[in-house]
Amino acid sequence: MYTDPISDYLTRIRNANSAGHRVVEIPASNLKKDITKILFDQGYILSYKFEDDSVQGIIKIALKYDKLTKEPVIKKLKRISTPGLRKYSGKDELPRVLNGLGIAIVSTSHGVMTSKQAKKESVGGEVLCYVY
């Protein structure tokens, strides 16, 4: 039993990247599915697949590596808001990661999105993690 499923999700991806695995399996939830879709849309993962089993389902993520150097595309995954210390940002103070080279994933009242999308829609929310 783990208390922070988002941190577990990020750690599984981080560990699979450092071990050089092609595919990682993660227990599914709606929030994790939304984060996976964002990572795919932003080009950080190669593909993903949602599989339903009798309990809660599994997310299979195909990790993306650089063709020449064989290094993972995801350099760093950093959890920002934790269950013990929630971090919220208003629409005017949404974070920029590496001057726009990375993404911040934000949970808003309009759903989970990147900080750039949240600025366009003029909403703030809980800053879940940074990816670059």
Automatic annotation (TrEMBL):
Signal peptide: none annotated. The keyword rRNA-binding applies. InterPro entries: Ribosomal_uS8, Ribosomal_uS8_CS, Ribosomal_uS8_sf. SUPFAM superfamilies: Ribosomal protein S8. Gene3D superfamilies: 3.30.1370.30, 3.30.1490.10. Keywords: Ribonucleoprotein, Ribosomal protein, RNA-binding, rRNA-binding. PROSITE patterns: RIBOSOMAL_S8. One of its GO terms (cellular component) is ribosome. The keyword Transmembrane helix does not apply. NCBIfam families: PRK00136.1. One of the primary rRNA binding proteins, it binds directly to 16S rRNA central domain where it helps coordinate assembly of the platform of the 30S subunit. Belongs to the universal ribosomal protein uS8 family. Part of the 30S ribosomal subunit. Contacts proteins S5 and S12. PANTHER family: 40S RIBOSOMAL PROTEIN S15A. This is Small ribosomal subunit protein uS8. It comes from Galbibacter pacificus. The lineage of its organism: Bacteria, Pseudomonadati, Bacteroidota, Flavobacteriia, Flavobacteriales. The gene is rpsH.
